[in-house]
Predict the 3D structure of the following.
Amino acid sequence: MSGRGRARGVLLGLALGDALGAPFEGRSRVTGVQLDAWIDAGEPLRWTDDTHMALTLARHLVDDPELDDPQALGGAFARAYALEPWRGYGAGPPQVFAMVAQGMSFEEAAGTLFGGAGSFGNGAAMRVAPVGLLPAAIDPRRAARLAEVQARVTHTHPEAIDGATVIAQVIAGLLDLDKVDADAIVRVVSAAASRLSEGPVRDRLTGVVDVLASGGEPAMVVGRCGTGVAAAESVPAAIAALLGGGDALRVVTTAIGFGGDTDTIAAMAGAMAGAAWGLERMPGPLLDRLEARAELERLADTLSCR
Ligand SMILES: [Mg+2]
């Protein structure tokens, strides 16, 4: 599998997981029969806020790969939202955009959410995948800094930042593997988890790795951790789907089967699985139905070759 194929796999895996998971958001569980019926229906695969924000971040990174101008990134998020507010955005980002329109900075506005704690949701992790594509992200400290800077535009809580950091570092680590197998994927995930500060995201990721390494089922892990919009629930769930094994479509369907925040868990899981397995293992007919496939591929090529 070429480097280009795996780089493209990141953004296409993200968009595929998002689009396939979207109809099931909020269900307590999704059966294989329900999922197969939706996949086989042949509908166009339209993605939601997860891919919309990731696409906006990817376009911004082309001109500002060090994220020197987070205000400009926030402005791009706000404009994208204003054009397509029907993409299933959570409550937080529009509140931030409204405060910024009144004169606050993005980070200042984001810091007022949840009584001043900042959002601990998965919005920063769901869109961070393009950071993992940058060659600079192979340095875990640089990946962490970029993940944090893009997070703080809307999500200032440490758990939201930890979630984004792990996803970016895992994608970069997987893209760097010469030989991909289950043990190598576990090593990449464990390394990313071990770099986090003490906290719920690190604890749960460590738990996920331990349970799966001792033969446990991914669904068992998420039964304990949860599948909600909190980064500390949905990021470990996405990692559990990745570690559950299989190609990108299998990882995405495992993630959707967990229920809960299905589009976001599957988007994060799909981006990581795409980094591991690339496009060759992704089903061509499904990708042909995916909204904006050509632009996602072009951005993946551009960012990974910087
Ligand atoms: Mg969504």
Summary: The chain has one domain: 3-304. Residues 173 and 188 are 6 Å apart (CA to CA). The first helix runs from residue 3 to 21.
